[in-house]
Amino acid sequence: MAGRFPREFKVDVLERTDIVGLINARVPLKKAGGIYKACCPFHDEKTPSFTVTPSRQTYHCFGCGAHGNAIDFLIEYDHLSFVEAVEELAQQAGMEVPAGGEGSGKGPDLRPFYEVLEQAAALYRRQLRQHPQAHRAVDYLKGRGLTGEVAAAFGLGFAPPGWDFLLGTLGDGAQARERLVGTGLLIEQDGKRYDRFRDRIIFPIRDRRGRVIGFGGRVLGDENPKYLNSPETPVFHKGRELYGLYEAQKSNRKLKRLLVVEGYMDVIALAQFGITYAVATLGTATTTEHLRQLLRCAPELVFCFDGDRAGRDAAWKALESVLPLATGRQQVGFLFLPEGEDPDTLVRREGRDGFEQRLRTTTSLSDFLFDRLADQVDMANLDGRARLGTLAKPLLDTVPSGLFRDMLGTRLADLVGVARNRLDSGPGSGRGLARRSSVQNNLKLTPLRLAVSILLQYPRHASRVSDLEDDWRRMDKPGIRLLAGLLELIAAYPSITAATLVERWRETEDGPYVQRLADPNLLADRPPEGLEAELEGAIDALNKEVKDIEFEQLCNRGSTTRLNDDEKQDVRRFRCDTQEDEA
Ligand SMILES: [Zn+2]
Protein backbone atom coordinates (compact mmCIF):
# COMPACT_ATOMS: atom_id res chain seq x y z
CA MET A 1 0.00 0.00 0.00
CA ALA A 2 2.96 2.27 0.56
CA GLY A 3 3.20 2.63 -3.20
CA ARG A 4 -0.14 4.32 -3.40
CA PHE A 5 1.27 7.84 -3.14
CA PRO A 6 4.10 9.27 -5.18
CA ARG A 7 7.20 9.49 -3.01
CA GLU A 8 7.34 13.27 -3.28
CA PHE A 9 3.83 13.52 -1.95
CA LYS A 10 4.74 11.74 1.24
CA VAL A 11 7.79 13.92 1.65
CA ASP A 12 5.66 16.98 0.95
CA VAL A 13 3.12 16.00 3.56
CA LEU A 14 5.84 15.55 6.16
CA GLU A 15 7.41 18.86 5.18
CA ARG A 16 4.17 20.67 5.82
CA THR A 17 3.43 18.93 9.10
CA ASP A 18 4.65 20.13 12.44
CA ILE A 19 5.17 17.04 14.56
CA VAL A 20 5.15 19.06 17.78
CA GLY A 21 1.65 20.39 17.12
CA LEU A 22 0.44 17.02 15.93
CA ILE A 23 1.61 15.18 19.04
CA ASN A 24 0.79 17.99 21.45
CA ALA A 25 -2.86 17.77 20.38
CA ARG A 26 -2.90 14.20 21.64
CA VAL A 27 -0.20 14.08 24.32
CA PRO A 28 0.48 17.42 26.04
CA LEU A 29 4.18 18.24 25.64
CA LYS A 30 6.51 20.31 27.83
CA LYS A 31 9.33 22.31 26.33
CA ALA A 32 12.78 21.35 27.64
CA GLY A 33 15.54 23.23 25.85
CA GLY A 34 15.40 22.54 22.14
CA ILE A 35 13.14 19.53 22.52
CA TYR A 36 9.77 18.60 24.01
CA LYS A 37 9.03 15.95 26.59
CA ALA A 38 6.10 13.97 27.91
CA CYS A 39 5.31 10.73 29.65
CA CYS A 40 5.35 8.14 26.92
CA PRO A 41 1.95 7.27 25.44
CA PHE A 42 3.26 3.86 24.38
CA HIS A 43 4.36 2.50 27.73
CA ASP A 44 3.51 3.13 31.37
CA GLU A 45 5.86 5.50 33.13
CA LYS A 46 5.91 8.18 35.79
CA THR A 47 8.90 10.23 34.65
CA PRO A 48 8.93 11.48 31.06
CA SER A 49 11.26 9.68 28.67
CA PHE A 50 9.29 10.43 25.52
CA THR A 51 10.89 13.21 23.48
CA VAL A 52 9.95 15.14 20.37
CA THR A 53 12.72 16.86 18.43
CA PRO A 54 11.42 19.69 16.20
CA SER A 55 14.69 20.08 14.31
CA ARG A 56 14.49 16.48 13.17
CA GLN A 57 10.67 16.21 13.21
CA THR A 58 10.87 12.89 15.01
CA TYR A 59 9.82 11.41 18.33
CA HIS A 60 11.77 8.97 20.39
CA CYS A 61 11.15 7.22 23.70
CA PHE A 62 14.18 6.26 25.74
CA GLY A 63 12.08 3.94 27.84
CA CYS A 64 10.44 1.69 25.30
CA GLY A 65 12.23 2.61 22.10
CA ALA A 66 9.15 3.97 20.30
CA HIS A 67 10.51 6.05 17.47
CA GLY A 68 9.47 7.66 14.21
CA ASN A 69 8.05 10.58 12.26
CA ALA A 70 4.57 12.12 12.10
CA ILE A 71 3.23 9.29 9.95
CA ASP A 72 4.58 6.65 12.33
CA PHE A 73 3.02 8.49 15.24
CA LEU A 74 -0.45 8.45 13.70
CA ILE A 75 -0.09 4.79 12.80
CA GLU A 76 0.91 3.92 16.36
CA TYR A 77 -1.24 6.33 18.33
CA ASP A 78 -4.39 6.66 16.24
CA HIS A 79 -4.07 3.10 14.91
CA LEU A 80 -4.35 4.30 11.32
CA SER A 81 -3.03 2.42 8.31
CA PHE A 82 -0.18 4.01 6.38
CA VAL A 83 -2.52 5.37 3.71
CA GLU A 84 -4.95 6.72 6.29
CA ALA A 85 -2.14 8.42 8.19
CA VAL A 86 -0.83 10.17 5.06
CA GLU A 87 -4.36 11.20 4.13
CA GLU A 88 -5.01 12.55 7.59
CA LEU A 89 -1.85 14.66 7.53
CA ALA A 90 -2.53 15.85 3.99
CA GLN A 91 -6.00 16.91 5.01
CA GLN A 92 -4.66 18.81 8.03
CA ALA A 93 -2.12 20.53 5.82
CA GLY A 94 -4.87 21.46 3.36
CA MET A 95 -3.29 19.42 0.59
CA GLU A 96 -5.06 17.73 -2.28
CA VAL A 97 -4.53 13.97 -2.13
CA PRO A 98 -3.24 12.75 -5.52
CA ALA A 99 -5.14 10.34 -7.76
CA GLY A 100 -5.78 7.01 -6.12
CA GLY A 101 -6.20 8.56 -2.72
CA GLU A 102 -9.52 9.51 -1.25
CA GLY A 103 -11.19 12.68 -2.43
CA SER A 104 -8.71 12.92 -5.26
CA GLY A 105 -9.20 14.70 -8.54
CA LYS A 106 -9.63 11.53 -10.58
CA GLY A 107 -11.83 9.41 -8.34
CA PRO A 108 -15.21 10.60 -7.13
CA ASP A 109 -15.18 13.14 -4.34
CA LEU A 110 -16.54 11.21 -1.39
CA ARG A 111 -16.94 14.08 1.03
CA PRO A 112 -20.62 14.67 0.20
CA PHE A 113 -21.24 11.01 0.98
CA TYR A 114 -19.72 11.30 4.44
CA GLU A 115 -21.72 14.48 5.02
CA VAL A 116 -25.08 12.99 4.16
CA LEU A 117 -24.36 9.88 6.24
CA GLU A 118 -23.49 12.08 9.20
CA GLN A 119 -26.71 14.06 8.74
CA ALA A 120 -28.76 10.89 8.55
CA ALA A 121 -27.10 9.55 11.71
CA ALA A 122 -27.96 12.75 13.56
CA LEU A 123 -31.58 12.60 12.37
CA TYR A 124 -31.96 8.97 13.43
CA ARG A 125 -30.50 9.76 16.86
CA ARG A 126 -32.97 12.60 17.31
CA GLN A 127 -35.88 10.34 16.34
CA LEU A 128 -34.93 7.91 19.08
CA ARG A 129 -35.57 10.69 21.61
CA GLN A 130 -38.44 12.51 19.92
CA HIS A 131 -40.45 10.39 17.54
CA PRO A 132 -43.91 9.42 18.91
CA GLN A 133 -43.27 5.79 17.96
CA ALA A 134 -39.75 5.64 19.35
CA HIS A 135 -40.89 4.19 22.70
CA ARG A 136 -40.96 0.75 21.04
CA ALA A 137 -37.28 1.07 20.20
CA VAL A 138 -36.45 2.48 23.63
CA ASP A 139 -38.37 -0.34 25.34
CA TYR A 140 -36.50 -2.90 23.30
CA LEU A 141 -33.10 -1.40 24.21
CA LYS A 142 -34.01 -1.09 27.87
CA GLY A 143 -35.26 -4.67 27.79
CA ARG A 144 -31.80 -5.69 26.68
CA GLY A 145 -30.35 -3.93 29.70
CA LEU A 146 -28.83 -0.98 27.84
CA THR A 147 -28.50 2.45 29.43
CA GLY A 148 -28.83 5.77 27.63
CA GLU A 149 -25.12 6.25 28.09
CA VAL A 150 -24.16 3.21 26.05
CA ALA A 151 -26.83 3.98 23.46
CA ALA A 152 -25.27 7.43 23.08
CA ALA A 153 -21.71 6.08 22.91
CA PHE A 154 -22.70 3.91 19.97
CA GLY A 155 -24.91 6.64 18.48
CA LEU A 156 -28.00 4.44 18.36
CA GLY A 157 -31.01 5.86 16.56
CA PHE A 158 -34.47 5.13 15.31
CA ALA A 159 -35.72 5.04 11.72
CA PRO A 160 -39.44 5.86 11.88
CA PRO A 161 -42.03 3.75 10.06
CA GLY A 162 -43.03 4.92 6.58
CA TRP A 163 -41.32 5.10 3.24
CA ASP A 164 -40.09 8.64 2.99
CA PHE A 165 -38.61 9.92 6.25
CA LEU A 166 -35.11 10.55 4.88
CA LEU A 167 -36.44 11.33 1.44
CA GLY A 168 -38.57 14.06 2.98
CA THR A 169 -35.92 15.50 5.30
CA LEU A 170 -32.68 15.17 3.32
CA GLY A 171 -33.92 14.56 -0.21
CA ASP A 172 -34.43 18.12 -1.32
CA GLY A 173 -33.16 18.45 -4.88
CA ALA A 174 -31.91 15.95 -7.45
CA GLN A 175 -28.32 16.08 -6.20
CA ALA A 176 -29.33 15.39 -2.61
CA ARG A 177 -31.44 12.42 -3.68
CA GLU A 178 -28.52 11.15 -5.76
CA ARG A 179 -26.34 11.13 -2.65
CA LEU A 180 -28.97 9.33 -0.61
CA VAL A 181 -29.13 6.64 -3.27
CA GLY A 182 -25.33 6.51 -3.59
CA THR A 183 -24.90 5.92 0.15
CA GLY A 184 -27.58 3.23 0.14
CA LEU A 185 -29.96 5.19 2.34
CA LEU A 186 -32.57 5.30 -0.40
CA ILE A 187 -33.54 2.37 -2.58
CA GLU A 188 -34.25 3.15 -6.20
CA GLN A 189 -36.64 0.81 -7.96
CA ASP A 190 -38.77 1.26 -11.08
CA GLY A 191 -38.07 4.97 -11.06
CA LYS A 192 -39.28 5.28 -7.47
CA ARG A 193 -37.18 6.04 -4.44
CA TYR A 194 -37.88 5.10 -0.86
CA ASP A 195 -36.11 4.77 2.50
CA ARG A 196 -34.10 1.61 3.02
CA PHE A 197 -34.40 1.69 6.82
CA ARG A 198 -37.97 1.80 8.08
CA ASP A 199 -39.23 1.18 11.61
CA ARG A 200 -35.88 -0.10 12.80
CA ILE A 201 -33.36 0.54 15.53
CA ILE A 202 -30.39 2.10 13.83
CA PHE A 203 -26.76 1.21 14.50
CA PRO A 204 -24.41 3.63 12.79
CA ILE A 205 -21.29 1.90 11.46
CA ARG A 206 -18.17 4.04 11.78
CA ASP A 207 -14.79 3.69 10.17
CA ARG A 208 -11.53 3.80 12.10
CA ARG A 209 -11.58 7.58 12.04
CA GLY A 210 -15.07 7.74 13.49
CA ARG A 211 -16.84 8.76 10.28
CA VAL A 212 -20.26 7.22 9.71
CA ILE A 213 -19.98 5.03 6.62
CA GLY A 214 -23.16 2.99 6.78
CA PHE A 215 -25.91 1.68 9.02
CA GLY A 216 -27.27 -1.50 10.45
CA GLY A 217 -30.93 -1.72 11.36
CA ARG A 218 -32.76 -4.12 13.62
CA VAL A 219 -36.40 -4.71 12.92
CA LEU A 220 -39.06 -3.75 15.49
CA GLY A 221 -42.07 -5.14 13.67
CA ASP A 222 -42.41 -8.43 11.84
CA GLU A 223 -40.57 -7.35 8.74
CA ASN A 224 -37.75 -9.46 7.34
CA PRO A 225 -34.82 -9.64 7.56
CA LYS A 226 -34.28 -9.15 11.27
CA TYR A 227 -31.02 -7.31 10.65
CA LEU A 228 -30.36 -5.16 7.62
CA ASN A 229 -27.12 -3.49 6.60
CA SER A 230 -26.27 -0.71 4.19
CA PRO A 231 -25.20 -2.15 0.83
CA GLU A 232 -21.63 -1.87 -0.44
CA THR A 233 -21.04 1.75 -1.43
CA PRO A 234 -17.97 3.79 -2.36
CA VAL A 235 -17.44 4.48 1.36
CA PHE A 236 -18.69 1.22 2.88
CA HIS A 237 -16.91 -2.08 2.28
CA LYS A 238 -18.08 -4.94 4.48
CA GLY A 239 -14.95 -6.96 3.96
CA ARG A 240 -12.90 -4.17 5.45
CA GLU A 241 -14.98 -2.70 8.25
CA LEU A 242 -15.50 -3.95 11.77
CA TYR A 243 -18.42 -2.82 13.86
CA GLY A 244 -17.28 -1.41 17.18
CA LEU A 245 -13.58 -1.00 16.40
CA TYR A 246 -13.72 2.79 16.52
CA GLU A 247 -15.66 2.71 19.79
CA ALA A 248 -13.27 0.12 21.26
CA GLN A 249 -10.26 2.27 20.43
CA LYS A 250 -11.99 5.31 21.78
CA SER A 251 -12.61 3.75 25.18
CA ASN A 252 -9.21 2.03 25.38
CA ARG A 253 -6.11 4.07 24.74
CA LYS A 254 -4.10 0.90 24.53
CA LEU A 255 -6.14 -2.11 23.54
CA LYS A 256 -4.80 -5.21 25.22
CA ARG A 257 -7.27 -7.53 23.61
CA LEU A 258 -9.94 -7.60 20.93
CA LEU A 259 -12.87 -9.94 21.00
CA VAL A 260 -14.54 -10.85 17.71
CA VAL A 261 -18.27 -11.58 18.14
CA GLU A 262 -21.16 -12.02 15.79
CA GLY A 263 -23.56 -9.12 16.05
CA TYR A 264 -24.10 -5.47 16.93
CA MET A 265 -26.10 -6.35 20.01
CA ASP A 266 -23.28 -8.55 21.31
CA VAL A 267 -20.81 -5.69 20.94
CA ILE A 268 -23.10 -3.23 22.68
CA ALA A 269 -24.24 -5.57 25.46
CA LEU A 270 -20.62 -6.40 26.24
CA ALA A 271 -19.76 -2.70 26.34
CA GLN A 272 -22.68 -2.13 28.70
CA PHE A 273 -21.02 -4.54 31.12
CA GLY A 274 -17.60 -2.95 30.80
CA ILE A 275 -16.16 -5.23 28.15
CA THR A 276 -15.38 -2.42 25.77
CA TYR A 277 -13.14 -4.31 23.38
CA ALA A 278 -15.56 -6.35 21.28
CA VAL A 279 -16.02 -5.96 17.54
CA ALA A 280 -18.25 -7.67 14.99
CA THR A 281 -17.92 -8.34 11.30
CA LEU A 282 -20.84 -7.06 9.26
CA GLY A 283 -22.61 -10.22 8.21
CA THR A 284 -19.54 -11.61 6.44
CA ALA A 285 -16.89 -14.14 7.39
CA THR A 286 -13.69 -12.66 8.80
CA THR A 287 -11.55 -11.51 5.89
CA THR A 288 -7.77 -11.17 5.69
CA GLU A 289 -8.23 -7.42 5.65
CA HIS A 290 -10.24 -7.61 8.90
CA LEU A 291 -7.54 -9.73 10.49
CA ARG A 292 -4.73 -7.41 9.45
CA GLN A 293 -6.51 -4.53 11.15
CA LEU A 294 -7.32 -6.51 14.27
CA LEU A 295 -3.79 -7.84 14.70
CA ARG A 296 -2.42 -4.35 14.28
CA CYS A 297 -4.69 -2.96 16.99
CA ALA A 298 -4.11 -5.32 19.89
CA PRO A 299 -1.63 -7.96 21.05
CA GLU A 300 -4.36 -10.48 21.77
CA LEU A 301 -7.23 -11.55 19.57
CA VAL A 302 -10.04 -13.82 20.75
CA PHE A 303 -12.64 -15.25 18.40
CA CYS A 304 -15.91 -15.97 20.09
CA PHE A 305 -18.04 -18.73 18.58
CA ASP A 306 -20.93 -20.99 19.50
CA GLY A 307 -19.77 -24.31 20.85
CA ASP A 308 -21.98 -26.24 18.43
CA ARG A 309 -20.86 -27.82 15.21
CA ALA A 310 -21.60 -24.77 13.05
CA GLY A 311 -19.68 -22.59 15.48
CA ARG A 312 -16.67 -24.87 15.39
CA ASP A 313 -16.73 -24.95 11.61
CA ALA A 314 -16.85 -21.16 11.51
CA ALA A 315 -13.96 -21.04 13.98
CA TRP A 316 -11.96 -23.35 11.74
CA LYS A 317 -12.53 -20.97 8.82
CA ALA A 318 -11.27 -18.12 10.97
CA LEU A 319 -8.23 -20.19 11.91
CA GLU A 320 -7.45 -20.89 8.27
CA SER A 321 -7.56 -17.22 7.42
CA VAL A 322 -5.49 -16.16 10.42
CA LEU A 323 -2.65 -18.65 9.84
CA PRO A 324 -1.04 -16.70 6.96
CA LEU A 325 -0.84 -13.71 9.30
CA ALA A 326 0.24 -15.58 12.41
CA THR A 327 3.73 -14.61 13.44
CA GLY A 328 3.32 -15.43 17.10
CA ARG A 329 3.63 -11.76 17.85
CA GLN A 330 0.00 -11.65 18.81
CA GLN A 331 -1.80 -14.20 20.86
CA VAL A 332 -4.78 -15.69 19.05
CA GLY A 333 -7.39 -17.67 20.95
CA PHE A 334 -10.83 -19.20 20.52
CA LEU A 335 -13.65 -19.01 23.00
CA PHE A 336 -16.45 -21.53 22.53
CA LEU A 337 -19.69 -20.62 24.24
CA PRO A 338 -22.07 -23.12 25.81
CA GLU A 339 -24.78 -24.19 23.42
CA GLY A 340 -27.72 -21.85 23.13
CA GLU A 341 -25.76 -18.91 24.55
CA ASP A 342 -24.40 -15.83 22.88
CA PRO A 343 -22.18 -13.12 24.38
CA ASP A 344 -25.22 -10.91 24.95
CA THR A 345 -27.10 -13.45 27.11
CA LEU A 346 -23.97 -14.70 28.80
CA VAL A 347 -22.62 -11.35 29.93
CA ARG A 348 -26.01 -10.35 31.27
CA ARG A 349 -26.12 -13.47 33.40
CA GLU A 350 -22.48 -13.72 34.45
CA GLY A 351 -21.43 -10.10 34.44
CA ARG A 352 -18.07 -8.78 33.43
CA ASP A 353 -16.04 -10.88 35.86
CA GLY A 354 -17.71 -14.10 34.86
CA PHE A 355 -17.28 -13.39 31.20
CA GLU A 356 -13.66 -12.36 31.55
CA GLN A 357 -13.07 -15.51 33.55
CA ARG A 358 -14.08 -17.41 30.42
CA LEU A 359 -11.64 -15.34 28.41
CA ARG A 360 -8.85 -16.74 30.54
CA THR A 361 -9.66 -20.23 29.37
CA THR A 362 -9.57 -19.76 25.63
CA THR A 363 -8.21 -22.43 23.32
CA SER A 364 -4.94 -21.30 21.75
CA LEU A 365 -4.51 -21.19 18.01
CA SER A 366 -2.07 -24.10 18.01
CA ASP A 367 -4.19 -26.22 20.38
CA PHE A 368 -7.26 -25.70 18.26
CA LEU A 369 -5.29 -26.50 15.11
CA PHE A 370 -3.74 -29.73 16.34
CA ASP A 371 -6.68 -30.92 18.44
CA ARG A 372 -9.08 -30.61 15.56
CA LEU A 373 -6.74 -32.40 13.17
CA ALA A 374 -5.99 -35.10 15.73
CA ASP A 375 -9.72 -35.71 16.07
CA GLN A 376 -9.81 -36.68 12.41
CA VAL A 377 -7.17 -39.39 12.66
CA ASP A 378 -6.31 -42.29 14.91
CA MET A 379 -3.37 -41.02 16.92
CA ALA A 380 -2.86 -44.46 18.46
CA ASN A 381 -1.28 -45.90 15.36
CA LEU A 382 1.52 -44.94 13.05
CA ASP A 383 -0.63 -44.50 9.94
CA GLY A 384 -2.94 -42.16 11.81
CA ARG A 385 -0.06 -40.03 13.00
CA ALA A 386 1.43 -39.93 9.53
CA ARG A 387 -1.91 -38.76 8.25
CA LEU A 388 -1.90 -35.97 10.83
CA GLY A 389 1.37 -34.83 9.27
CA THR A 390 -0.20 -34.84 5.82
CA LEU A 391 -3.20 -32.85 7.01
CA ALA A 392 -1.18 -30.32 8.97
CA LYS A 393 1.61 -29.72 6.50
CA PRO A 394 -0.31 -27.56 3.97
CA LEU A 395 -1.74 -25.47 6.81
CA LEU A 396 1.65 -24.92 8.42
CA ASP A 397 3.04 -23.96 5.04
CA THR A 398 0.74 -20.93 5.01
CA VAL A 399 2.27 -19.58 8.23
CA PRO A 400 4.94 -16.90 7.64
CA SER A 401 8.41 -18.24 8.31
CA GLY A 402 9.77 -17.34 11.71
CA LEU A 403 9.60 -18.34 15.30
CA PHE A 404 5.91 -19.21 15.44
CA ARG A 405 6.07 -21.39 12.38
CA ASP A 406 9.11 -23.16 13.79
CA MET A 407 7.27 -23.83 17.02
CA LEU A 408 4.27 -25.25 15.17
CA GLY A 409 6.63 -27.41 13.13
CA THR A 410 8.36 -28.73 16.23
CA ARG A 411 5.06 -29.51 17.85
CA LEU A 412 3.84 -31.35 14.78
CA ALA A 413 7.08 -33.30 14.63
CA ASP A 414 6.60 -34.33 18.24
CA LEU A 415 3.02 -35.38 17.61
CA VAL A 416 3.89 -37.29 14.50
CA GLY A 417 7.11 -38.63 15.93
CA VAL A 418 9.53 -37.80 13.12
CA ALA A 419 12.63 -35.65 12.95
CA ARG A 420 11.99 -31.99 12.43
CA ASN A 421 14.06 -31.68 9.26
CA ARG A 422 11.97 -34.27 7.44
CA LEU A 423 8.95 -32.05 7.75
CA ASP A 424 10.68 -28.91 6.62
CA SER A 425 10.43 -28.29 2.96
CA GLY A 426 13.73 -26.50 2.83
CA PRO A 427 14.69 -22.86 2.55
CA GLY A 428 12.39 -20.43 0.84
CA SER A 429 9.30 -22.48 1.54
CA GLY A 430 7.93 -19.75 3.76
CA ARG A 431 5.15 -17.91 2.08
CA GLY A 432 3.30 -14.93 3.45
CA LEU A 433 4.57 -11.80 5.09
CA ALA A 434 8.27 -11.17 5.05
CA ARG A 435 9.68 -9.45 8.09
CA ARG A 436 9.91 -6.17 6.32
CA SER A 437 12.02 -4.06 8.62
CA SER A 438 14.37 -6.88 9.52
CA VAL A 439 15.11 -7.36 5.85
CA GLN A 440 15.81 -3.67 5.40
CA ASN A 441 18.25 -3.84 8.25
CA ASN A 442 19.80 -6.92 6.60
CA LEU A 443 19.61 -8.66 9.91
CA LYS A 444 17.61 -11.83 10.23
CA LEU A 445 15.98 -11.91 13.64
CA THR A 446 16.96 -15.28 15.07
CA PRO A 447 15.56 -16.06 18.54
CA LEU A 448 18.86 -14.95 20.07
CA ARG A 449 18.93 -11.65 18.21
CA LEU A 450 15.27 -11.08 18.94
CA ALA A 451 15.86 -11.59 22.65
CA VAL A 452 18.84 -9.22 22.68
CA SER A 453 17.00 -6.65 20.60
CA ILE A 454 13.97 -6.66 22.89
CA LEU A 455 16.10 -6.41 26.01
CA LEU A 456 18.13 -3.53 24.59
CA GLN A 457 15.02 -1.60 23.70
CA TYR A 458 12.75 -2.69 26.54
CA PRO A 459 15.04 -3.45 29.48
CA ARG A 460 12.07 -3.71 31.86
CA HIS A 461 11.01 -6.96 30.18
CA ALA A 462 14.12 -8.63 31.63
CA SER A 463 12.22 -9.61 34.77
CA ARG A 464 10.20 -12.02 32.64
CA VAL A 465 13.33 -13.97 31.72
CA SER A 466 14.34 -14.71 35.30
CA ASP A 467 11.24 -16.86 35.69
CA LEU A 468 12.23 -19.06 32.78
CA GLU A 469 14.60 -21.97 32.46
CA ASP A 470 18.14 -20.96 31.66
CA ASP A 471 19.44 -23.94 29.74
CA TRP A 472 20.34 -21.44 27.02
CA ARG A 473 23.34 -20.35 29.09
CA ARG A 474 25.03 -23.64 28.20
CA MET A 475 25.05 -22.76 24.52
CA ASP A 476 28.39 -21.94 22.98
CA LYS A 477 27.64 -18.88 20.86
CA PRO A 478 29.03 -15.34 20.93
CA GLY A 479 25.60 -13.74 21.37
CA ILE A 480 24.89 -15.82 24.46
CA ARG A 481 27.59 -13.98 26.38
CA LEU A 482 25.99 -10.69 25.39
CA LEU A 483 22.53 -11.87 26.40
CA ALA A 484 23.82 -12.99 29.81
CA GLY A 485 25.69 -9.70 30.25
CA LEU A 486 22.61 -7.68 29.41
CA LEU A 487 20.48 -9.54 31.92
CA GLU A 488 23.11 -9.11 34.59
CA LEU A 489 23.37 -5.38 34.04
CA ILE A 490 19.61 -4.86 33.97
CA ALA A 491 19.24 -6.92 37.16
CA ALA A 492 21.78 -4.63 38.85
CA TYR A 493 20.17 -1.43 37.54
CA PRO A 494 16.47 -2.18 37.03
CA SER A 495 15.64 1.30 35.77
CA ILE A 496 18.49 1.45 33.27
CA THR A 497 17.48 3.01 29.95
CA ALA A 498 17.93 1.66 26.46
CA ALA A 499 20.32 4.48 25.61
CA THR A 500 22.59 3.67 28.57
CA LEU A 501 22.71 0.02 27.61
CA VAL A 502 23.92 0.91 24.13
CA GLU A 503 26.51 3.25 25.66
CA ARG A 504 27.76 0.49 27.95
CA TRP A 505 28.72 -1.71 25.00
CA ARG A 506 29.78 1.01 22.59
CA GLU A 507 33.54 0.63 22.87
CA THR A 508 33.51 -3.15 23.14
CA GLU A 509 33.89 -5.89 20.58
CA ASP A 510 30.11 -6.37 20.61
CA GLY A 511 29.52 -2.63 20.18
CA PRO A 512 28.55 -2.56 16.48
CA TYR A 513 26.35 -5.62 16.95
CA VAL A 514 24.58 -3.99 19.90
CA GLN A 515 24.12 -0.82 17.89
CA ARG A 516 22.36 -2.72 15.14
CA LEU A 517 20.13 -4.70 17.47
CA ALA A 518 19.12 -1.51 19.26
CA ASP A 519 17.69 -0.13 16.03
CA PRO A 520 13.98 0.53 16.71
CA ASN A 521 13.22 -0.38 13.08
CA LEU A 522 14.02 -3.99 13.85
CA LEU A 523 10.97 -4.27 16.07
CA ALA A 524 8.94 -1.61 14.30
CA ASP A 525 6.33 -3.96 12.94
CA ARG A 526 5.73 -5.71 16.24
CA PRO A 527 3.28 -4.18 18.69
CA PRO A 528 5.11 -3.23 21.90
CA GLU A 529 2.48 -4.99 24.00
CA GLY A 530 3.36 -8.33 22.48
CA LEU A 531 7.12 -8.07 22.97
CA GLU A 532 7.21 -9.51 26.44
CA ALA A 533 5.58 -12.68 25.15
CA GLU A 534 7.95 -12.69 22.20
CA LEU A 535 10.92 -12.45 24.49
CA GLU A 536 9.62 -15.43 26.38
CA GLY A 537 9.12 -17.31 23.11
CA ALA A 538 12.67 -16.52 22.03
CA ILE A 539 14.15 -17.76 25.30
CA ASP A 540 12.04 -20.91 25.04
CA ALA A 541 13.33 -21.44 21.53
CA LEU A 542 16.93 -21.05 22.74
CA ASN A 543 16.34 -23.55 25.54
CA LYS A 544 14.98 -25.96 23.01
CA GLU A 545 17.87 -25.32 20.66
CA VAL A 546 20.46 -26.13 23.29
CA LYS A 547 18.68 -29.37 24.10
CA ASP A 548 18.51 -30.29 20.44
CA ILE A 549 22.21 -29.64 19.99
CA GLU A 550 23.20 -31.60 23.06
CA PHE A 551 20.87 -34.40 22.17
CA GLU A 552 22.40 -34.63 18.73
CA GLN A 553 25.89 -34.64 20.20
CA LEU A 554 24.91 -37.50 22.44
CA CYS A 555 23.39 -39.44 19.58
CA ASN A 556 26.45 -38.92 17.40
CA ARG A 557 28.65 -40.17 20.17
CA GLY A 558 26.30 -43.09 20.58
CA SER A 559 26.99 -44.20 17.04
CA THR A 560 30.78 -44.12 17.42
CA THR A 561 31.38 -44.88 21.07
CA ARG A 562 29.13 -46.52 23.56
CA LEU A 563 27.06 -44.36 25.83
CA ASN A 564 27.43 -44.98 29.52
CA ASP A 565 24.30 -45.48 31.59
CA ASP A 566 24.05 -41.88 32.71
CA GLU A 567 24.14 -40.69 29.15
CA LYS A 568 21.54 -43.17 28.06
CA GLN A 569 19.33 -41.81 30.74
CA ASP A 570 20.03 -38.32 29.42
CA VAL A 571 18.83 -39.31 26.00
CA ARG A 572 15.62 -40.61 27.51
CA ARG A 573 15.21 -37.50 29.59
CA PHE A 574 15.68 -35.26 26.57
CA ARG A 575 12.96 -37.09 24.77
CA CYS A 576 10.55 -36.61 27.66
CA ASP A 577 11.51 -32.97 28.11
CA THR A 578 10.73 -32.14 24.55
CA GLN A 579 7.37 -33.83 24.73
CA GLU A 580 6.46 -32.13 27.96
CA ASP A 581 7.36 -28.75 26.56
CA GLU A 582 4.83 -29.16 23.86
CA ALA A 583 2.09 -30.57 26.07
ZN1 LIG B 1 7.87 4.71 25.74
Structure overview:
The protein has 583 residues and is an alpha+beta fold. 49% of the residues lie in helices and 12% in strands. The chain contains 26 helices and 17 strands. A six-stranded mixed sheet has the order 12-14-13-15-16-17, with helices on both faces. A hairpin with a 4-residue loop joins β3 and β4 (58-61). α5 crosses α9, α15 packs across α16 and α16 (382-397) runs antiparallel to α17 (403-416). Bound molecules: zinc ion.
Give the ligands present: zinc ion
Query: Based on helices, strands and strand pairing, what is the structural class?
Result: alpha+beta
- The helical percent reads 40-55%
Global morphology: globular
Distance between the termini: 40 Å
Radius of gyration, in angstroms, nearest whole number: 27 Å
- Taking pLDDT < 50 over at least 5 consecutive residues as the criterion, the unreliable ranges are 100-106, 425-441, 576-583
The largest sheet is: 6 strands, mixed
The helix tally amounts to 26
Strand arrangement across the biggest beta sheet: 12-14-13-15-16-17
Mean pLDDT comes to 83
For the secondary structure, the number of strands is 17
Instruction: Quote the beta fraction.
Output: 5-15%
Key features of this structure:
alpha+beta; 17 strands; binds zinc ion; six-stranded mixed sheet; disordered C terminus; 583 residues
